[in-house]
Specification:
By secondary structure, the protein is an alpha+beta fold. The chain folds into two domains: 321 residues, 2-Layer Sandwich (Beta-Lactamase), CATH 3.30.450; 169 residues, Alpha-Beta Plaits (2-Layer Sandwich), CATH 3.30.70. It has eleven helices and 16 strands. The strands form three sheets. Strands 12-13-11-14-15-16 form a six-stranded mixed β-sheet, sandwiched between helices. β14, α11 and β15 form a beta-alpha-beta unit. The relative contact order is 0.08.
Amino acid sequence: MIRRPNAVLVIGIALAAVLTLVAAWVMAQMRHDALASARASATNMALLFERDTARNFDVYALSLQAVIDAIDDPRLAALPPDIRQAVLFDRSATAKNLGAIFVTNAAGDVVFDSRSVPPRALNVADRDFFIAQRNSPHVGLFLSRPFIPRDGPANATIGLSRRLSNPDGSFAGVVVGTMRLDYFRQLFSGVDIGTNGAVVLALADGTLLMRRPYDPALIGKSIAESSLFRSFGRAQASGFFNVGPVDGVRRWFALRRVGDYPLVFSVGVAAEDVYREWRVRAWIIGTLTALLDASLIALAVMFTRQLRRRGVVEAELRVQAGTDPLTSLANRRAFETRADHEWARARRSGSPLSLALIDVDRFKLYNDHYGHLAGDDALAAVAHALGAHARRAADCAARYGGEEFVLLLPETGEAQALALVEKVRAAIEALALPHAGSPNGVLTVSVGVACTTQSAFGDWRALTDAADAALYTAKRAGRNRVAAWLPATTDDARGANVEGRSG
């Protein structure tokens, strides 16, 4: 049995705390797993976008190089126009979503057109893909900003150009292939990125080429000054959290650069979408944990109260078991337990221990004359007077049996004990309880006292025997008096120092 009720409450609270910590760890792990799953999904999605785009751009690059190789062949000019068209643009037919391939002269006029023979009357000298190649011989493959074609449908397009050079290295024109940005819109439309997710394709300078959710007004806008784009350069391979520059939604972004092309893909999964399902589960787990915690603590409180009540009842039972019901003093069993303890303590400390036996004089005559109920009242009155003088915590007043009482006085010498019990004797006599069978006319007591300073007693029972011998001496000396045990007393002549008044 748990002897400390508060320990039950502490254990209950500790178990609730452990349960809460375990639940918190599980929820934290679930949150981590939710983010890890979203990261993997976004990273894989960005990888697929990057590889598909890189493959198509490689095809574009090969198509442009094929045109350049064909133009350098001197036999090309001798071919009929339809054959020349097939030779120039044969490989471009396999390029998915390719708009058109043009060959221009140094002035920007289109001289070959993959979609028309003869070529359409177009001049692209003002386009960035032409200007960049004209101004520098080392640009290589150039990817333009989005534009609306002059002769085609009204949708945004980008151009990929390569430089044409004369034998002396001077600028001879460009080969440019156009690509509709609607290709990326179709590419993004088939994926699930959550309710608030976003996919962005941008040039390396921050020019936005395509975004999902789609907004045509955003195409060609710059996001170079946004915190998201500034994070591209220092982004780790695992991605990062940031706020979308268009709608301000916080997302986790996975980035992929498209091969050697100046393109960047970002797939952003909204934090709200990442943690939506986790929040539902966390709410359920948290609620269940809170209920379990409350139940544990409530049970601990109830059990603690029951233990306290049981402790009170047990304490009352112990008191009742050690208390004489008539006099409310300790009974003989309780006295003997206390005597064992005080005797051992006196032996350890060397302090004196005194014991007094008190007997009501001629009590049988009192009972015979006044009746047993009056006798019980008389014993209760004697006990009250005795208890009133045993005021120290260590003192023990007990009913020893019948009309006999005992008073145990730790750390009390013989003289102190005699003085105290004389007060007790006088107080009982002063009660003036009528006793027709006593020469004194009132109820009196005789007292025998023994102290450990008088002799080397073997145990407290020997000390009690000595006090009993002194009590016998007081009785023989006429009752209503106090007698101290004398070591020289023999069975035939029980002498003692006797105090008090004879009956």
